[in-house]
Amino acid sequence: MGVQIVLGRLLPVLTILLAIVALWYAAVAPMNIRQSLDMAERAGAAVTPPDARERSNTSRWVLMANNPGEIARGYSLDRPRLPTPVQVGGELWKTTGEMALKGRAFSKRSLIYHGWITLQSTLMGFALGTLVGILGAVGIVYSRTMEMSVMPWAIISQTVPIVALAPMIIILSSQLGVEGRGLPKAIISAYLCFFPVLVGMVKGLRSPGREQLDLLQTYNASGYDTFLKLRLPASVPYLFTSLKIGIAAALVGTIVGELPTGAISGLGARILIGDQFGTPLAIWAALFAAAILAGILVTLIGWLQRKAMRRMGAGT
Amino acid sequence: MTVVKAENLSLTFQTADGPVHALKDVDLAIDKGDFVSFIGPSGCGKTTFLRCIAALETPTGGTLTVNGMSPDAARKARAYGYVFQAAGLYPWRTIAGNIRLPLEIMGYSKADMGERVERVLELVELGGFGGKFPWQLSGGMQQRASIARALAFDADILLMDEPFGALDEIVRDRLNEELLSLWARTGKTIGFVTHSIPEAVYLSTRIVVMSPRPGRIADVIESPLPRERPLDIRDSREFIEVAHRVREGLRAGHGDEL
User: Fold this and answer.
1) Nearest-CA distance from B94 to chain A in Å?
2) Reported ipTM
3) How would you classify the pairing of strands B216-222 and B35-39?
4) What is the CATH number of domain A111-311?
5) To the nearest whole percent, how much of chain A has pLDDT over 70?
6) What local confidence, expressed as pLDDT, does residue B97 receive?
């Protein structure tokens, strides 16, 4: 019985995972064929066509068909255009678990260190964004003026590309004498995170129907009671849904905040540095570290949500 | 003693399609301890009238007093308990927690709250269900809990807006019977909106038949039935006669629309 449940939940996930991995492996050969042939040529092997410039004008599929013996090389390049999952996993392990085992988890070369830097700003931005989102939603629900004035700006704010805004926030905050990148990164992260919280909370605080509000009216309940005993608890399911989106957005915001030149720590900086130094494995490892971090954060909020909803009487 | 008194009461809603006369020249007095039903087709103003008593709507003409005060003053004095068609229990509160809601808002002491919750749960035959959450209860039980919630504080008037409208007939019969015994034990004045002729006749000491466009009173029937009413009174001659008169009143009010 238990085994069946586990299989029933795992099997679909594993099937998709397997499909992705298979597709990935299949893509490695055409993605890396040019590099493989360059390497082969340097090693003295006969390659068709032999001229590198001619090769760059030939389709990847033709190159693969003409040099079937060199395809395998693409799966073990040092700096592949597309590394294999195993290569990425290996790099990830080398920069996390292996360093931790050596007691160098927080060395500047370790992704645990960079992940920790990113996590700090993400959590700070998340807290800030959530606070702004909730306060904004309360204001919008209770004040017609705020609804008319704040809501359009909140929507417009999200249409400005964060990539354009991030460097400005960083420069501005350094001109204002803010030390380090922690705070500006948190602000960029909050900028992305507040919006889903705001929208979700506006919907949640407005979710009680007319009869429910009428009922409190018959008790002559104060506005404070209506908020505390009806609107706020009614908004909790909406809040958690928003928080899940919000924390993922906060992480993206932080990483974007780490991209502008000058940043040296954080997962975003690792991605940038990996690009500048031509080490695709480092980029991919940082990308996966970010994805894993996002997964952990969203799962954590899901767990909190289940706990909260159970306390609030939700059925199984 | 008159508890609710309406004279020339009118309520006109201004809509995009022009004014809608929800109530027009309604005169009615409800005495203490009465069980008054309001029956009529949709749009006859029966719910609107109940909401006026509760100060959830404001009349545009005439006078209305509740316990000798304006409806709004009566609402602030917590003169009535209101039961809506949907039980409207908070899903995040237990049954006891839901019944405690008005008591918390009205500032009752903790000990008093516990004692009252127990008492009204017994009154609606939900003893022992206080710790359950609403989703664990049937629709009929949820509606009983919502009645208990309206009874938990000391309001002499109970206003009920089609409280059993969404329930099946068997549950409805049972709750009707229970409501009568609850009324006998508590001596409350009850205003009850319904669509059902048998329900109105079975429950009420007075039946107010209303008709639509504009919403007005077509007939007020004093029930000849005794206050003590077993379910099988519905097969008696008097019952059938009253039901007939209600039906006639509804038909007359409808004009040639039927």
Assistant:
1) 7
2) 0.85
3) unpaired
4) 1.10.3720.10
5) 98
6) 92
